[in-house]
Model the fold of this input.
Amino acid sequence: MLISPTLDEPGAGLPWYETLYLRYVTFPNYVRTMTWHSGVELFHEEGQNIKALIEPLNNDQLLTQVLIDRLRGLEDSSRFWSPVMVLEHLVIVGRELKDIIISLNEEKVPNKDLDIADVKPSDKTGTEIIGRFNGFQDEFITVMSDERYHRSSVMKFDHPWLGPLNSFQWLCLAAGHQYLHRTQIRKILKK
Done:
């Protein structure tokens, strides 16, 4: 029987000092090092790294939830996931990010509120998510490689932790998000 640890509620956020540092130092410095092309390339690279970590795993390894220490940028509620739960989260968030980037580059502000609690995976996620993850990776890269989107929008849309971001900043976030969760999978597999 799986015993769930006591964790913060989904959407509780990061420690306040970490949120401030991420918003005003880490993320702006990271974005300054990026171009549209390097953002798409990093997203692709991290997706390939994730696939390489996932491919050799058996069903038990894919489906077993493991408690890890909290990574910087990761909510406490996200510390007890299985590898397939991480993949589901990446697909959920990736689709949201793709739609936000497209809307902003069409100079439309998305008509929604982002809630971190809404992008958490289910603990019932099965291995079928692997195919959806692989398909989504290809879709995201194809869309973001389209020259229509190779620019920073004038319009911005609020991220709950990072504040108002333009389309280029959202693309950078997508690439960094892949990196964070690839690191999470590596930590899960080390346990």
